[in-house]
Amino acid sequence: MYLSIVTKHINISDHVNGFLIHKINEIEKYNNKIINCKLFINRDKHNITTEIFVHTKLHDFFCKDTSTNVEKAFISSLSKMKSQLSKFHSKRLSKRRH
């Protein structure tokens, strides 16, 4: 899986960067056909927005969340992405069985 992290108007420390990479690699449990993943972190006046784009062989996924903290926004958007991937996986399995 190719991973790119793009930040705008914010600097991320090495510790937070390592945390983001470690957590984003966990989504491969939900779908092992991920081609690339893009994480965008944008800072507005008071909020931080994280967007995750995941491109697989069959489908593209997107989730977005806003918070005052980078970790909170990222964890929330990552949980949304995990639920999307697991839902897609269960739909594919149910279609295969019928």
Topology:
Blueprint: E1 2-8, H1 14-24, E2 34-43, E3 48-56, E4 60-67, H2 70-97
Parallel strand pairs: 1-2
Antiparallel strand pairs: 2-3, 3-4
Helix pairs in contact: 1-2
Protein model, in words:
With 98 residues, the chain is α+β, with helices and mostly antiparallel strands. Helix content is 40%, strand content 35%. The protein contains 2 helices and 4 strands; from the N terminus they run E-H-E-E-E-H. Strands 1-2-3-4 form a 4-stranded mixed sheet, covered by helices on one side. The longest helix has 28 residues, at 70-97. The model has no long low-confidence stretch (mean pLDDT 93).
Tally the beta strands: 4
Helix content: 25-40%
What is the averaged pLDDT score?
93
Structural class: alpha+beta
Unreliable spans are: none
- The end-to-end span amounts to 31 Å
Largest sheet: 4 strands, mixed
Radius of gyration: 14 Å
Short description:
This protein is of the alpha+beta class. It has helices at residues 14-24, 70-97, and strands at 2-8, 34-43, 48-56, 60-67. The protein has a four-stranded mixed sheet with strand order 1-2-3-4, with helices on one face.
Structure keywords:
35% strand, four-stranded mixed sheet
